[in-house]
Specification:
Layout: H1 2-29, H2 43-52, E1 59-63, E2 83-86, E3 90-94, H3 99-123, E4 138-142, H4 146-156, E5 167-174, E6 177-185, H5 204-222, H6 233-244, H7 270-285, H8 288-297, H9 303-310, H10 316-328
Parallel strand pairs: 1-5, 3-4, 4-6
Antiparallel strand pairs: 2-3, 5-6
Helix pairs in contact: 3-5, 5-6, 6-7, 7-8, 7-10, 8-9
Length: 334
Amino acid sequence: MKNKISVILTFLLFAAIVALMGYAIIRIVVKPQRPLTNADIPQTTKDWFRDLLAGGSDIGGILGPDFRDPSEWGNYEDVDSMLRIEDEYFVIFYSSKDSAVQRKKAQICQRYAHDIIPKADLFMKGYPYPSKLNGRKLPIYLGRNISHYKDISNQVAGYTPRRGTLGFFSFEYGIDGIYAKGILISPETWSVPDLLIDEQTEDMDFRATLWHEMNHFIYFTKWDFTQPERPSLWFTEGLAEYFSDFRKRLLAVGNHSKYDLRKDYCNGNDEYWVGYTAFLCLEKNYNVSLVSDVVAQSYDKSIDKALQTVIQNGSLESWNNQWHSYMEKKEYNH
């Protein structure tokens, strides 16, 4: 009997040791998942997002929802009693004044917003569905006129957009991930006059602006805020232009020799065409699938490291050299 008990105890001790060893191995191999905290985010990243809008970017993010109850994520800013169109993915706000025309614009916006989802699933390696964001849908606010656009911006984002800004993406980030406060679109974005607008109107200028801002939403929802490296502004703005395929941006192309892709800068204009042509160059030298892979790698790596991961002997330096050759030959005009 004693021998039997001794065998059982020995077996239990052995099983406990194996279990502890297994747990230790799992802890080493598998990175533990825990909520993102304020201390995890480098101060340089916080400063970078704080300064973006002031520097002319159309991205504005602040550390915010550390203590936001997930149940609040389904609440949306009801600005000036705006009307809304809501579906499973979006809440699109439009002015109650002149609501017949404004509703048609909202319906066009809704159509274009849905068009981006399969494109994002393919190229951006996934669209951030509400199920991944505590059920929060993407709010989109359409300004009726410039004054209204500024009022919305101040109420939703606490920011007055600089003159000429056609739209911007405002968000908070913290332990529960990205909290999209909203995409705001200026009435100056529309190229089709109000009198000619109906639900089936095609307005490529409006679509390009909407898709540009939605690309920021997708990219920064996926981006790792704990990494010390931040993407250059030419990269994020160029990506948004490339994604929206807004070829009118190429009309702004200037002297490329002033710029180096290995450096970051922000003047509120040139980073858009520099980045756009850089992505066009990358596509020409490789293919769209490779560009998509580089973007996906940049979610948690520096741009240089993303290129090294995807392209054999790739680097930011080689991309920079290829881009200058591409610009010298004016291949972006093809």
